[in-house]
Amino acid sequence: MSPDHYLFLAALLFVIGALGVLLRRNAILVFMSVELMLNSVNLTLVTFSREKGTLDGQIMAFFVMVVAAAEVVVGLAIIMSIFRTRKSASVDDANLLKY
Amino acid sequence: MTAAPVLAAASTSISTGETITFWVLGPLAVIAAVMMILSRNAVHAALFLAAVMLSLAGLYAAEDAPFLAAVQVIVYTGAVLMLFLFVLMLVGVDSSDSLVETLRGQRVAALVLGLGVALLLMTAIASGTGDGGGVGLKEVNAEGNVVGIARLLFTKYVFAFEITSALLITAALGAMVLAHKERVVPRLTQKELSRARFASDHPFPLPGPGVFAAGDSIARGALLPDGSVSEDSLAPTLLQLDKDGER
Question: What pTM value is reported for the model?
Fold first, then answer.
């Protein structure tokens, strides 16, 4: 095998995450799928870091993790406040901006 | 004849151990990811996501990134997923997905789109790479992975690193502001609560779970004198789960 295998795996995980975003209606599950996509991109960055022989890719993956942690905190707080007002975590019920 | 061994020596050779690690953890991650987007129960999905993230941590460790492997376990599996589980508990276990398709044909379109993106990415990777194993991290990891990362983080990327502190503070403040609940009605005093209770048809406390029953689990309802289970003693969520059957 070669390090490219990791890239194929990351692409597969990214597509699965994207499908999760498209197919699921529960906001929390959509959010989890976004996390999966972020993780798969991290795997790509780490693999590139190895192929290029520098640590910059790992630094980038580290920053992605930091930003993802901040994003999860704010996103889950938004989901909580939407759930509190609408008694539902479904993305179909938050449609006030639609019209 | 002579060029091939030189090239092979220049590119990093991948050990058998890493190959085995990849072929164990890779399929595991893919299966767990597919199960995550297919499982109806949100808690099961969170646990499958934990499996994906732990597999990815193992893959990072196999790819000469021990620091990121540790951070992956601590930050993602430890902090982010626990946050997800906490929110699931607050939102309630009855928050499973509706299977009604809101937009007609969306699922088929999504599957076709996913297949297309997968094909696109795979062909892009296949055509863009493929010249051996690359340089490898032996050289830059000579002092240790953590030292190498710290050296970069506090020199070349020090400004971005400082900016993330502002981001984290903003996120913490944002979460506090968003999750803060304004009290719209004044808090009831103990006297008012007591009056309301005696005005109701339940002046006495509700039966606790497990009273006179064989166990003391909260899922075991209190038994009434005739031996039947009192629904007052069980949490509404548990009754709902019982009604829905095993999910």
Answer: 0.80
